[in-house]
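ok new one. same drill as before - structure tokens go in, u give me an amino acid for every spot. 262 of them this time. try not to just spam alanines like last time pls lmao
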């Protein structure tokens, strides 16, 4: 049973990842997610069901459209695989806990928003804002069944704290922090606060650390200049996921550095 839950979550992640490819492409363009159906981006030919099996169809078609033979980006199966891996990891982290659906949703949102921010340097309100309600609704059963109202209140408090913190940063340094990041910060605060204040601190610190390291790497390789705008959303989401899986050990390690004799 311990291995079955991550395996099932991985299969679900493949299917969700396939849908996320549609979200990543269409939401920034304000296009419908339902119509038209999946089609080749080059010749617009509709993709048949057997050609739309996550990862396997791309491999069977050798990365090319069945109709026009134009290449189809490897990013499509990579998004599906990344979602599957994240879903499996989240399922292994939470098991059959009632908050599992909420954190699976967070993993899916993390993949979609990261790719969109890389592509267009935006975190669409169409995804971020509804996710506040979805996250709260998915966490509510865990609060009710586990009578864990302290976690729920902590999540709401952390949501307000991170929103206010990022809002202040955006006012002080508007060129370096967008209001899309501010809105995302509140959502991440809700999820991290549920886990504990150590997760909030680790996730926030990791976001700035990872963002700084990524920026330094781009500068060092000449792929960006000092005035190049770089998306911060992916670093925020990566920091939150790092805290999701490792906030406890990281906080304990850092506490040991501060008080080695304790």
């Amino acid at each position: 049973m311990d291995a079955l839950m991550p395996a099932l979550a991985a299969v679900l992640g493949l299917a969700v990842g396939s849908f996320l490819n549609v979200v990543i492409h269409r939401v920034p363009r304000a296009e419908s997610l339902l119509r038209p159906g999946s089609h080749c981006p080059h010749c617009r030919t509709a993709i048949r069901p057997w050609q739309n099996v996550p990862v396997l169809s791309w491999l069977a078609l050798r990365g090319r459209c069945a109709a026009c033979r134009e290449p189809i980006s490897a990013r499509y199966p990579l998004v599906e695989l990344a979602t599957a891996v994240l879903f499996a990891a989240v399922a292994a982290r939470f098991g059959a806990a009632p908050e599992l659906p909420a954190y699976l949703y967070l993993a899916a949102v993390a993949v979609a928003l990261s790719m969109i921010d890389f592509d267009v340097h935006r975190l669409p309100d169409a995804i971020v804002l509804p996710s506040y309600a979805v996250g709260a609704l998915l966490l509510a059963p865990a609060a009710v069944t586990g009578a864990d109202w302290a976690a729920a209140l902590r999540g709401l408090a952390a949501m307000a704290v991170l929103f206010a913190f990022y809002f202040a940063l955006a006012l002080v340094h508007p060129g370096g922090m967008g209001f899309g990041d501010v809105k995302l910060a509140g959502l991440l605060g809700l999820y991290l606060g549920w886990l504990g204040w150590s997760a909030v601190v680790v996730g926030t610190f990791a976001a700035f650390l990872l963002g700084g390291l990524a920026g330094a790497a781009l500068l060092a390789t000449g792929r960006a200049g000092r005035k190049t705008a770089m998306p911060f959303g992916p670093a925020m989401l990566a920091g939150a996921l790092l805290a999701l899986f490792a906030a406890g050990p990281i906080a304990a390690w850092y506490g040991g550095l501060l008080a080695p004799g304790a």
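The chain has two domains: 1-96, 99-262. and btw The mean pLDDT is 91.
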